[in-house]
Fold this sequence. Notes:
The chain is built from 16 helices and 21 strands.
Amino acid sequence: MCHCYVVSGMTVNQLGGHQRQGQRRSQRVRHAGTSRRRRGMVLLVVLVTVAILSLAALTLGDLMLAEREGAHISNRMAQARALAASGVEAVRLFVSMDEEWQNDNGGWFNNPAWFSGMVVHQTADPLDTGLFSVIAPDWEDTMGTAIRYGLENESAKLNVNSLLLADQYAENGGRQLLMGLPGMTEDIADAIMDWLDADDEPREFGAEIEYYSGLSPAYATKNGPLETIEELLLVRGVTPELLFGADRNRNGIIDADETIPEAFAGLSADDPVAYRGWSAYLTLYSMELNVRPDGRAKININQDDLEALYNQLEEEFGHDVATFIVGYRQNGPYEGTEQSEPMPADAQIDFSRPSRVKFSTVLDLIGAKVRMQFAGENEPRVIDPVFPNDPALLRTILPLIMANLTATSSKVIPGRININLAPRSILYGIPTLDPSVAEMIIQARPKDPTLIDDENYRYETWILADGLVTLDEMKALMPFITCGGNVYRAQVIGYFAGGGPSCRVEAIVDATVRPARLLFWRDMSHLGRGFPLDVLGSSGQMAGLGRAGTVVSP
């Protein structure tokens, strides 16, 4: 039996059918909405993925460009180092040549043709051309801003490792040499001397192991030669400001952005090196060859074999000089009042007589008399000087003696100071040299030590020939001064004409041997190029740079 109910004109069966149809429609709507949402989500995921991939691609591109730029810069830096190394080799080649060749090719002192803007690698693009320049400070410039294209002679500086030798020739000679440095005190000077000497006994104002062992951290004194100038920072009282001064980038000049340390604030501006600090005055490497101008060995007048000495002297100077010098060695100088006479033409030396004395210096020959007995004679005679102490003759005699004779067997002499090049402060510290004489030396010496017309100025004895010192004063100065020096410092910059990476190195080259050898190399690139491109040069021939004193614009 079927029961049908009517609801608002519809049967229950009809109502249920309509509900089922509505449900199906709702389900279809829900499925359609879900499908649309899914499609939207997929689109969003695709967009995000594309964005991420695009960013990844962009990042990868930037990384590749950065790697390419880094590789390019690394390559250019390697090229700059090679350019600087080429400059060092050019310096080594130049100083390996004899003096005549060097002077014919412009000399080592100021030579733009060899040391300014020298092209190493030529390219199609002029801006990519690789060059080097060799620059040195001009010590005559009181503003500390001028440079020259050349080398520094290490003998123009004070050799720290030779300071102990100075004590052998003058009381506290090492301290006196150090006291010439700007801002130096006796306490620091003696502390430096104590750092170098072999004992542990402190000097009057010095410091030894007792002081350094009380520091934190404690350390011992070196009691030996330095290996680098920077070791002085371990010495009591030595500070970076004193050692390096205002020249923070170590280019040898005082740039516009470099300020004078308080320790040097009271210094006179007359000394162009002062503001560069003590390192500008100091070296560990100064040496000079003790040979004749043509490279032959000098005659050692203190050699043991007197007959060999006579033969060498006779060949070079003749019978009278040879006989006199051997007679001096056998008898010593004569200081009595007997009348002297010229050397007999037929005088014969008795070589069986041994040597009794040696020369302290070749200048002992100047004005000396000798009392000697010749072979076959019964009485000795007093012989006139063969090298008279006559001011009118000294300008001729001194170059002859200095060029050919020596009182030492050493082929190389270390540590003496070149009076033609040393700055005022170094000259002021030389024992027995009066400051007024130092000023006269500065006024009279050649401006370019490679351009010398008077042979006297090749030897330290020119100050005797010019009457600035007496013979005795000159003898006392001989252990300290010279006009030679065969070790050179070069500041070499490798760079590109269009700028970019550069390399600056400091090299010390020893020309006491042939070929010259490299003693020291320091890469200073971390301190910057040091000089503007227009100062460094771009072709090796720059207008207006053929002379010393080129001013570096700030």
